[in-house]
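Input sequence (548 aa), recorded before submission:
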Amino acid sequence: MPTKKTTPPTPRVTLPQSERTNHLGAKRVGKTAPNKIISVSVIVKRKNPLDLAKLGGKHLTQQEFLDKYAADPASFTQLRTFAHQHGLTVDESASSIARRTMALRGTAKAMAAAFGVTLNNFEKDGVTFHSYTGTISIDPQHTECVEAVLGLDSHPIAKPHFRVLTRKKKKKKPTKPKPTPTPAPTEDGSYNPPQIAQLYNFPTGVTGAGQTIGILELGGGYTASDLSTYFSDLGITEPQVTAVSVDGATNSPGDPNGADGEVGLDIEVAGSIAPGANIAVYFSTNTSQGFLDALTTAIHDTANGPPSVISTSWGSPESNYTAQTLSAFDDACQSAAALGITITAASGDDGSSDGGSGNNVDFPSSSPHVLGCGGTAITTSGNTITSEVVWDDLASGGGASGGGVSSVFALPTWQANANVPAAPTSAGGRGVPDVAGDASPESGYNVIFDGQSTVVGGTSAVAPLWAALIALLNQQHGSNLGFINPTLYQNAENGFNDITSGNNGSYSAGPGWDPCTGLGSPNGTQLAQIFTPTTSTSTKSKKKPPKK
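Predicted structure, token format:
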């Protein structure tokens, strides 16, 4: 009897940039239970390539973006077929054409088969997570529409960049925030955020009205009573604060050793400087999937704005991310730029090493489509800064301003004349940070979280500080500034207090841009003059954008 011929299976195709090596310092503790339910976010390619240079500075409306640069609905139809073939469920409520994200749910066994991986559990620092090593592969007929698959690796991706002033270092007992108008800051003391804004000459006569500031959080939470007390004690009308749940994460305060200090710092800094703005806080899971989902949810959140500026104070070294995560995240930042949304990101609190061996920069502050925010230490007399240097407490066991040169992202054209040091890799070159602001706990910010008043520093404070400044400038000029990095570097001789003293480990401050404090700390009055209405295009404008 003749042997029946069988058709060989179609070879799978490796998803570019999906390689995941072993997790440094993590221990494999067994295979992931086959019936464990896992959620993944499949990032779908755009229907048309997005070229920011070709937009010429024009800011798109959400509808314009949806029509041209979102995912193709046909790709979603194709992926629904893929999901059905592999026994996966499409979570339609968590999927979005605009966000180019299809959320799939299924067992670990089904996910492993669908994406050609072996899932194992790992343990690090008391946290257990599932992940894979090697690469992701999918059926060849679906490869053309897929950019990334996130969620097969659930390891904690980032940490908050805030530092609480320790008691033995405190020069005075922290007090509740003082009502405004406040007394002049005292030398070597802590400050309320509006005092910092005054020291940096932030615009007056504007409150951020009409703006929404988005804040990304990967843990922790806030209580309404803390916020009410904080703003009441400052004599400031409490801003509208909305918690937005992403990937099932929620506003979860109550852990004094967790990220509540980050959440409180972010809201209270941004909200007290721009109290007229609405604050939308996006709580997500601390994974690469959760981080990206929080960002894309904020960018396309028409229910809460969408935000005109987004602040994130979470991050980790570039090496902690897969190449597909870095690419997909930066791609989302480009979407924000096209929509006229500014993104501010803390550059890290561990100096030039970013907590690793050798020199590293923190992501997402190293994205060339993000405003990276480094840290300084200030000394004041009256309403004047008498000294401002690089924040560097490393010698005493504290932190320092993160900064250096990216190993992943190339030198942007707008940094070509900034004298960025040589890149550590042939692919890298982007210098970090772009700007700076007060970050030392020794000259830190008075905040309230978990019912306690305390003093907090870190570059975590600088991202919401700059976000609030941008909200004020947006209102003042009647248009979103959007992606401001090129304009900042073109006008670097104005708008900044140049920081020329101090270091963050391997790098030292000097005239002009440096890998410690970027272009420097803000001079709000000068920045307001730089950003005239002709330098940016309103999302509502019907006029043609100026050629650049």
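Checked by second reader. Residues 353 and 360 are 5 Å apart (CA to CA).
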